[in-house]
Amino acid sequence: MLLGTILRSGSSDHLVASYGKAAMKTMLVTGGCGFIGSHFIREIVAAARWRVVNLDKLTYAGNLENVKGIAEGEGYRFVRGDICDRTLIEALYSHERPATVVNFAAESHVDRSILDSTPFLETNTLGMQVLLEGARKHNVERFVQLSTDEVYGDLDRLSPSDEEHPLAPSSPYAASKAAADLLALAYCRTYGLPVVIVRSCNNYGPFQFPEKLIPLMIRNILVGKDLPIYGDGMQQREWIYVDDNVDAIAQVIERGRVGEIYNVSTEDEQTNRDVVRLLCDLMADEVGVDVKSLHDRVRFVIDRPGHDRRYAMKAAKIRTQLGWEPRVSLDMGLRRSIRWYFDNQPWLDNVTSGAYRQYYDAVYARAGA
Ligand code: NAD
Ligand code: DAU
After folding, report:
1. Is residue 233 part of a domain?
2. Pocket of ligand 1 (CB under 6 A)
3. pTM of the predicted model, to two decimals?
4. Relative to the CA of 99, which of 29, 119, 335, 347 has its CA 20 to 30 Å away?
5. In CATH, what number is assigned to the domain containing residue 84?
6. For residue 255, what pLDDT is reported?
7. How many structural domains is the chain composed of?
């Protein structure tokens, strides 16, 4: 919805005028079967201004169900593959000739990076180099990298970070993403590759894999499990509904300045404790479960190693330069998410069959849950 609105609004008329329907340019989207990527793909295909090629390895986090209903054809093509595969990437750049690349592909979960950092370095850093190298060789017009507030590290007792804030990643995940950002900026300066970076805060919404805080809590409530909060639960995060982030990414693709970084944040800091408490209240309200029994299931478990206390970003740049604003309140976004997971329990069952149980035991046994 949001992206469609933006692409039809006055600011993007130049895109329609210059490219025209008949000569639609190609956008290569990587990781489009994951959480944020699938929301992005749905919107961009619906807006019908680009031909979209979705390259995804379909790891545990990538699921064709997430893009169900998007018909393959002239406007959309799915390719199963790895961004680290140089031969495949070269073939895709040569045959598809993408004007724009948007890189969502990543190993994205901090707890998994603590269990094994290898796939994080491979995909998030080496895979990034493979994509950048192809983009440089094939004269891509715009390369948008999806980055994270985690690259700034722990902001405990510091003022919120603007885009100039030093990088100080704490987890292997965050370090692999910071390395990718630096590589992208190096390609921009050294080779003139037109790179733009988007650093966003914690996303939530439909199709998010239930290893992340909000869908994990919703699922645990639905299946009658305890609600594990790491440490004292006073860590602070900023939460953005996924549609608002997709909207921001669309604006950066259209009008973001080359070589620049854009923070995307609601600037609304919440402790994990408060988020889980609010989620229990809303869950009780939305699906009619007893609220006290939900609060009683909260367990404070051993903290995540290296856990950052606080992320906080200034989003003044994207607000003032591009006119972006988040539109979905935390209350509204959580209600939408709860309803979606409640109505899509077969999706939840499907993604949590198999290896999910081993993952859950590995992390939550460590946490003493
Ligand atoms: P996700 O884990 O839900 O999806 C990642 C997707 O990438 C999956 O479809 C997976 O199959 C694919 N993938 C993984 N390795 C690949 C490889 N080697 N080649 C091709 N495809 C591969 O992630 P997400 O939450 O949608 O995050 C998307 C991007 O946004 C990531 O780069 C992440 O670092 C960044 N980000 C996420 C958040 C958040 O809160 N989820 C916040 C800030 C930034
Ligand atoms: O901040 C942006 C980042 O947000 C993205 O770059 C990452 O890809 C994404 O995974 C997310 O990372 P976090 O580690 O912040 O998200 P997660 O949902 O895992 O955890 C959110 C907070 O909740 C964090 O402080 C840890 C805590 N937590 C998480 C889980 C899964 C718990 O207390 N209990 C849990 O069971």
Report:
1. no
2. 30-31, 33-37, 55-59, 61-62, 82-84, 104-108, 123, 127, 146, 148, 177, 200, 202-203, 209
3. 0.95
4. 119
5. 3.40.50.720
6. 96
7. 1
